[in-house]
Design goal:
alpha/beta, Rossmann fold, binds glycinamide ribonucleotide, 9 strands, seven-stranded mixed β-sheet
C-alpha cells in the first residue's frame, strides 16, 4: 500500500507510521510527506527516514480547491493509493476526495461524533466527559464526519489539563493509526452504503 501523508505539525503520528513500517507491523510504503507548513517538524522526521518531502504552502493558492489540485498532482505523480491526514490542519475539498474516494484517512483526537473540529481535547474537558479518546476515519465532505474505522478510549482524570489529556490521547493515536492502516493494507476494510439497518455509510472490518 503506497501512502501519501499530509502533515502540518510535529509529525508524531507520521513517526508512528514510519516506526510501524520499520518494525514490520505495517505493510506499506510512504511515498511522500506533504506539508502546508514550511517549518513543520514532520518534515525533519520524513527526511530522517529517507522519505521524500514536499512543501505546498496554502497561502500561495487563491482557494482551497486550487491548493488541493496541487496536492493531488503531487500525490498522483508518486503513485499514492491511500492519503493519510496525520495532524493536517486544513479542510480538504472535493478535489482531493474525488481523486481518492474513500481513500483519505484522518486521525482525530476525540471520540467522534463528539468534539469535531479544532481543540477537540479542550472541548472534551470543557464538557466534563469522563472518557475521551481518538478516532481513525475515512474523510467525507463534512468536518470529521466520515465513516469510522477504529477508536480507542482513555480516561479523563481528576486534575487533567489540556496538555495532559492531549498527551494521553496522542499515545493511543500512535497505536491506533498504524493498526487501522494495516487493516486497510490487508484489504479487510469495506465501506457499506446506508441501508435498512443503518442510515449512514459504515465501515465493516473483516475479522481474521
Ligand atoms: C494529533 O493529535 C491529531 O489527532 C490532531 O493533531 C495532532 C497532530 O499531532 N489532528 C487534528 O486535530 C485534526 N483535526 P502530530 O503532528 O504529532 O501527529
Amino acid at each position: 500500500m503506497v501512502l501519501g501523508v499530509l502533515v502540518s505539525g510535529s509529525g508524531t503520528n507520521l513517526q508512528a507510521i514510519l516506526d510501524a513500517i520499520g518494525a514490520g507491523r505495517l505493510d506499506a510504503r510512504v511515498a511522500v510527506v506533504v506539508s502546508n507548513v514550511a517549518g513543520a517538524g514532520a518534515l525533519d522526521r520524513a527526511r530522517a527516514a529517507g522519505v521524500g518531502t514536499l512543501v505546498v504552502e496554502h497561502a500561495r493558492f487563491p482557494d482551497r480547491r486550487a491548493f488541493d489540485t496541487a496536492v493531488v498532482e503531487a500525490l498522483r505523480a508518486r503513485g499514492v493509493e491511500v492519503v493519510v491526514l496525520a495532524g493536517f490542519m486544513r479542510i480538504v475539498t472535493d478535489v482531493l476526495l474525488g481523486a481518492f474516494p474513500m481513500k483519505v484517512v484522518n486521525v482525530h483526537p476525540a471520540l467522534l461524533p463528539a468534539f469535531p473540529g479544532v481543540h477537540a481535547q479542550k472541548q472534551a474537558l470543557d464538557y466534563g466527559v469522563r472518557v475521551a479518546g481518538c478516532t481513525v476515519h475515512f474523510v467525507d465532505g463534512g468536518t470529521d464526519t466520515g465513516p469510522i474505522i477504529a477508536q480507542e478510549t482513555v480516561p479523563v482524570l481528576e486534575g487533567d489539563d489540556e496538555k495532559a489529556l492531549t498527551a494521553r490521547i496522542l499515545e493511543k493515536e500512535h497505536n491506533l493509526l498504524p493498526r487501522a492502516l494495516q487493516w486497510l493494507a490487508e484489504g479487510r476494510v469495506t465501506v457499506e452504503p446506508p441501508g435498512p439497518l443503518a442510515a449512514r455509510a459504515r465501515v465493516r472490518i473483516e475479522t481474521r
